[in-house]
# Entry
Amino acid sequence: MIIVDSALQERARSGRPIRVGMVGAGFMGRGVALQIHTAVPGMTLVAIANRRLEPARRAYVEAGQDAPRTVETGKALSEAIAAGQPAITEDWRLLCAADEIDAVLEVTGSIEHAAHVVTGTISNGKHAILMNAELDGTVGPLLKRRADAAGVIYTNVDGDQPGVTLNLFRFVRGIGVRPVLCGNIKGLQDPYRTPITQEGFARKWGQKAHMVTSFADGSKISFEQAIIANATGMTVGRRGMYGPTVPDGTPLEEAVRQFHAERFIDGPGIVDYVVGASPGPGVFVLGTIENPLQRHYLNLYKLGEGPLYCFYTPYHLCHFEVPTTVARAVLFRDATIAPAGPPRVDVVATAKTDLRAGDVLDDIGHFMTYGQCEKADIARSEQLLPLGIAVGCRLLRDVAKDEVLGYRDVELPRDRLVDRLRAEQDALFAPAGKSLGRHDSVTA
# Structure
């Protein structure tokens, strides 16, 4: 967003920087801290909240800011911000309540904890910026509705593939081409990957093995494509998406021929992905246009004869682009990517291996489950278990490998906020005259 840089420079010149609080200080959080401090005039990361103080302190030190002040009260946080001293705390609630903070960036990678942070941010009248497709893909439509009621912006971020895709989607739509497929370019897709198989890659890049596994086993891309669908009104062609695989290095323009236009060109469009195409990792949008004169121009401009035209962004730069989302929200009240209404696509929990009654389901990117995209109305009618809800559930029966789990198959943990939010979301968007499922009576 080219206009953002000028607006941030003006904030810097006027001495009124955007003041950001961040919850979470892991691999990505440290990158965001570095980016804001070294490359973003007109924005200041005034405070970091983390369950342990040392990672928060490390984030500031790596960014070139020594001696952050440890605070335990709202008064102490306000004093630190007034003095221009970065603050760290174990209490995320202080950031949500601080009048001196304009927006809260949630970058914990969790679901239950993040649900508390984001609802607290919204209820305190602050813009909620998520680097968290998992929470958004589970209860995002409800959180967006709450943010609207509170008069604040709720959004996921530039840099992650969904935000990059929505930027491209808006560009394509803005030139008069109708987007019909929003896609992701992957290098690997294997639902049976585990933290053991991904340990070496994770160690090489200083990441957590389960996070890397969620990329490899398809869970992450399922959440990412789901929130794109929820933001655009698109759907999926089938459970799990089509996901064609092509020989490594196949040019994207050739790879997208694996998608059969007749399956989606006349509907609301679909989200999907391709494995092996180049350039990667990146995102693409397939669009169409009916006007024959415009098709002639697109052919002249080397996009081919149609009916599908391929637009792509060959990279996504994660933490480098996150501050742009913060600026868009605070300065222009523009969400990078947010649900447009009722959920269109859900991410359903699927057995990664044979599971046994009594097993307690582990976290996303671990050993027991992987995620698949499914149409939200099918997930609702069949009472399928969302992957974002599955963590910590106890199985009531044996489940075979690759079987999709349902609410009937599990006992939910007690007293979780995410379950209450999901029940509220399901009730809010329930079709007229439809009764709710078993899980709503359990968690409401």
